[in-house]
Structure prediction request, 239 residues.
Amino acid sequence: AELERAQTNRLSYYKPYPKQQEFHAAGGPLTTRERLLKAGNQVGKTWSAGFEHAMHLTGRYPDWWQGAVFDDPTIGWAASETSQSTRDTVQRILLGQPGAWGTGAIPKDAILDIKRASHGVADAVETIMVRFGGGGDVQAGSSRITIKTYDQGRERWQGETLDFVWFDEEPPEDIYFEGLTRTNARGGIVTLTFTPLKGMSEVVRRFLMERPPGTAVVNMTIHDASHYTPEQRQAIIAT
Prediction:
């Protein structure tokens, strides 16, 4: 029973590494609206963003939390490049593996409804309705997160007013600014988690060179990922 509780309420056990904590804390207060966690592959960037957004969806913030806080139910988008890539990264972190939904960052008792995507990618999800309010309060409000893709094109990114947008993997410039615009009315936040594989793109330039007010960058390397032993780090670096 204890193991099942742990597996279906991973959010209560989340403890970030120092660099992940720096990324979270950079979002508070909400005056820092745009944050980039620039990190290598498999060091925990998607993991940390998934758990932060589970907090924004549920309103369940731990005592140590220093980042952005929403006092009311939220509406947000999370996105990556394709339907398959979002299913295997963003969706997996938020919900868990297909057949075991509720074992991801969003606690099982907070999941109100899951709407599957209609585009034909097996086990892909389009929308998750989440109970907002700690302890499974059935009278609490509900949050909503919709999973989007970059290959949908900019037109599919128009129209909605949002509290947050999470870009996992670097978005095209037009998609990024369309997503940012969706958060303007509510003074919401935008987070990006990616390895900059496209060179000095306009999105990377914005964060690394232009650095407008309200932006923040945290750089995380394999040396900041405590789940690797020194020997494992050396082997990965060597390859």
Remarks:
- Residues 173 and 203 are 6 Å apart (CA to CA).
- The first helix runs from residue 2 to 7.
- Residues 135-139 have pLDDT under 50 and may be disordered.
